[in-house]
Design a protein that fits this description.
The complex is a heterodimer of chains A (116) and B (204). In chain A, 52% of the residues lie in helices and 3% in strands. Chain A has one domain: Orthogonal Bundle (Cyclin A, domain 1), CATH 1.10.472.20. A two-stranded antiparallel sheet of chain A has the order 1-2. By secondary structure, chain A is mainly alpha-helical. By secondary structure, chain B is of the alpha/beta class. Chain B folds into 2 domains: 33 residues, no CATH class; 142 residues, Nitrile Hydratase, Chain A. Chain B contains 10 helices and 4 strands, in the order αααααββαααββαα. In chain B, the strands form 2 sheets. In chain B, strands 1-4 form a two-stranded parallel ribbon. Chain B has a two-stranded parallel ribbon with strand order 2-3. In chain B, helix 3 packs across helix 4, helix 4 packs across helix 5 and helix 7 crosses helix 8. In chain B, 37% of the residues are buried. The chains are: A mainly alpha (116), B alpha/beta (204). Chains A and B meet through helix 1, strand 2, helix 2, helix 4 and helix 5 of A and helix 1 and helix 2 of B.
Chain lengths: 116, 204
Amino acid sequence: MSSAVDRTITDMEGGAALPRKNGELIFEAPWEARAFGMVVRLCESGLYQWDDFKERLIRAISQHACKDPGVDPEVGYYHHWLCAFEQLLKDHGILSNAEIEARAAEYLSNKRDLYE
Amino acid sequence: MMGYGGHHPGQPSMAEALTAAIESLLIEKGLISSDAIDAVVEKYERDIGPLNGARVVARAWVDPEYKSRLLTDATSAIAELGIKGMQGEHMVVVENTPEVHNLVVCTLCSCYPWPVLGLPPNWYKTPAYRSRAVSDPRGLLREFGLELDENVQIRVWDSSAEIRYMVLPERPAGTEGMTEEELASLVTRDAMIGVAKVRPPKKS
């Protein structure tokens, strides 16, 4: 595992810049930190290049492509982040749409426990 | 796993469900582990960022014109070096001299010029530092190991959401032949907050 942080990630600019307060990263809910950690970790593992993710993130932000109907797409940076991540996983054949949807449905219907 | 500890137990949001779905699938495929995710998050949360301020100080030491721009309009002079991340904060740089020593604090909270200095050290945020910087700066500096001569004036600069201060420390003696890059490596975070001086290089 790479031990240093990647400046191309920490120094993203404009709408893609990581949300910070007084320099510190802000995660407003635990899932946001999980989503952040997964994207960065798989990039460290070499499954994709950072730009592969970044271009999808920028597209998600500009198109408001997020599909969570309960959330105002204007407010949630990490909703766009998650949306871009899902797209990247599908585009690179890492996960399929069908398996993600099926598994998410299990969490939504409490067949699987989110809090265990 | 670290968990999703939610606002509506038993009623996950779409984002929570999607994140958990992706995480569990990636784990099953052996592509990731929960511990590795935790470790990445921790690493990025602890990252203090590059010490861009050291480059600013070194440039000011070698280039008098840059230094005068820095002291009159620090925000522009810092941007000149390609340092990014300012979010509308106005930067002011204050110069230490043999007669005047500057100290930066944020008495209200923990405002800090992070694009130049990275994340603040923990002590910067403590009530003790924030109050003593104002009530007894000389005593506070002594605790940091900085004994100032009685006739050195101490000026305390209180940061705010709008104005962030950084100290331009004195260039130490014995550094005349050093390059800008070598000089930058001498400059510490503490010196740019004003709780230390820049030490001359160790004789090798």
